[in-house]
Specification:
By secondary structure, the protein is of the alpha/beta class. It has one domain. It is built from eight helices and eight strands. A four-stranded mixed beta sheet has the order 1-2-6-5, with helices on one face. A two-stranded antiparallel sheet has the order 3-4. It has a two-stranded parallel ribbon with strand order 7-8. Helix 4 runs antiparallel to helix 7. The protein is globular, with a radius of gyration of 16 Å. The N and C termini lie far apart (36 Å).
Amino acid sequence: MLRLLCLVIALAGCGRPLTDVERAFADTLHGPALNADAVRVARVPLIDRFKMERPPRPQVACRERIHPPETGPVVRASVAGIVLFETLFASHPAWREDYLAGYPDTLPLREAMFLGHELTHVWQWQNRRLTGYHPLRAAAEHKPGDDPYLFAVALDRPFFDHGYEQQAALVEEYVCCRALDPKGARTARLRELLRPVFPALARDSRVPRDAVRLPPDAPKTAGICG
């Protein structure tokens, strides 16, 4: 992971600011706790060549259930993005000129989940007096064969008791559940977990359910967060 951070720093340009619709979307998650003016998004080559190995994830989270089940003893995934301080560095495959193009008339779900996750890392840095965050601390969560993104939604475990990647994954999961199953029980538990930290968290995605753009291989999603 340290090699990856060094590569990103070496290859990075200045990046672009968030678009108006990206800002509007972020406001439904982090609200004024995120300084959107300071965020930059940069496209960086080569980082997708770095692979992470982890066990297959169970089909429990919305994040997994919008895709077919993972198989095999080990899953190898390319790095899509990395946040350093207030800049999101995206790989070529993950890069978009606008991650929320068409919002709020439509919601590109995978892109929205990706952006929600990565902006949470920016929020962690901007609020580091509260979170204790540093990119190196987040990088230290990545250990061979482990999955720092795996979580369980438990209301007896406060948000800040989760690791940094888990915190971002919880926000990402809320994006998924809010869009596809806003009245689901899991959605409600996520909201209850997140609202003390993000008081401006919106209850709905502002996008009609039939206007949510799913991955092409998505199974049926009715009651996905029930």
